[in-house]
Amino acid sequence: MITSATQQGMMVLWMCVFLPVLSASQRSEPMFSVVTGTMLPPDYDNNPTQLNYGVAVTDVDDDGELEMFVAGYNGPNLVLKYDKQNKRLVNIAVDNRSSPFYALRDRQGNAIGVTACDIDGDGREEIYVLNTNNAFSGRATYSDKLFKFRNGRFEDLLNDDINEHRDVANRMAGRSVACVDRKGTGRYAIYIANYASGNVAPHALIEMDEAASDLSKGVIALSNVADQAGVNKFTGGRGVVVGPIINQYLSDVFCDNEYGPNFLFKNNGDGTFTDVAQQAGVEDPMQHGRGVTLADFNRDGKMDIVYGNWNGPHRLYLQLGSSRKHRFKDIASQKFSMPSPVRTVIAADFDNDNELEVFFNNIAYRGSSSNRLFRVSRREHGDPQIEELNVGEAAEPEGRGTGAAVTDFDGDGRLDLLVSHGESAAQPLSIYKVNQGSRNSWLRVIPRTQFGAYARGAKVVVYTKRSGPHTRVIDGGSGYLCEMEPVAHFGLGKDTATNVEVYWPDGKSIARPLEASEINTVLEILYPTGDEEEETPEIEIECGNGFALNENGRCTDEDECTQFPSVCPTDRPVCTNTYGSYKCRANKRCSQGFEPNDDGSACVAQVAYFGGTQSSGVRRWSGLSLWPLSLSLLPGLSSHLQTGLL
Ligand SMILES: [Ca+2]
Ligand SMILES: [Ca+2]
Ligand SMILES: [Ca+2]
Ligand SMILES: [Ca+2]
User: 563-566 long-range CB contacts below 8 Å, 24 or more apart?
Assistant: First the structure.
């Protein structure tokens, strides 16, 4: 007998599965082509058919090129390196005990989350792997691993004698991990989004204890500082992303959680954090977060947050407000927010046309579920426009997608996409190349820490002649269980980049003009030591329309309303300064709770502060009476969520 409640649940599922297929207009040219067959054909050594999860992009072998570390769940972790001669990817973590990468395989660990960053300040990134052996939540039967290159090979620091009794070997079932330079020292902490079971397994933050360590002897003592940093909360941890989200340069942390509100941890500047998710309107407490990433979609210099909710509405939270009040509003369109069994979410300019795309990796879960791609284009004086693109062969409707990462492994200036699969079926990895935009210009910027490592969490701004400033954050962990390449990738289309600014997590910054010869290249930018600040650049910095150089040599928004008091026409005399421009509107008075619309022709409700229960994406679905019900409330599904899906 099928009960009516079960039927309702099934209807929801059927809608999840088929609505995206019916609604995708797919008029554009396909974005991705599969190249797995030539780049990484499935085989036992390099691309085994196994359960894989997260992917981190880091320089594992220290040769200056980036590799992809893939978390293997029921098989070894893989380290995929691009072989330039044979134009294919090979796994350098080979099954040979004499290999320096042998320990990275860690066949016993059920690895899901992975992230890399320099925790000890030697300029080389360590690799943190989160394992979830035999547990969905709470205590796991196997420790996480923190691999450091030492004594000619990778070794696990958590297994060192000194760390055995420091309560740092995270034996909890968690999900995502990410790197955060919480004090701007260039020595990173690992943020671990554990999945709590009651009062077991709060979020953890593990870093080197400098006083207890002796770097000259290779002794690295680790501490869990989650308590003192104020992030040791109990929740169903899922996605984590790090960067100057509401701070200008300090690294903040955003977590999208399951069975509980999200966290937006504002960095207080002293290594502690305060959760401001409620004030910012990003708690989304009824939804179950998965993949998350940061991007500045409207190019106002403020980071926006985009994430997927498991079979719930996906969010595109645009950051509003001044530097003191941090508020976000969900601008996801109906198509964009369409619930799906989502895993990783990536924002990147895949076709180098200088507008960002958002890639949703969906897991085929009780039926097929295609991956989807949207372009989010900036609009002058309006919220960005969202259009669905044809994802091409990366749709993989039967793919059991569990993770994905971008990097440009063959160095042609166009991003490549790796998708991992697992969970409910063993599938090999797949590799995609972008078909579109081969004639567009690009620029790749790699900032380094004071120790020479990748500056995860640093902010990179590129100013252009026509499309304004483009802002990127060097990824310290995003997607879902993943970490993208430590590179700020800028598509330029036919535009010209005029100068670049980098802001490190300690507030240090540099600005320098770009020469024509630097377009279509990779720029390494070193941490400023102080001497180079005095140098006078040979060519002048051009900030572009609406921006001017300030006394510190940085491009800043011009306040046209103050500088040119009569800049607005008499029929629209009210001037509002905006980032890179200004707005003029008619003088209209509105009653409390309302504000004039953009042109001052009418009063509209003020952008509310979404106190937390529902945000606009939910309300848009009110036509479908079932949507406000989260799937977890439907009988028969909650137990599956609790036990089956990682
Ligand atoms: Ca390398
Ligand atoms: Ca290191
Ligand atoms: Ca923004
Ligand atoms: Ca694009």
Answer: none
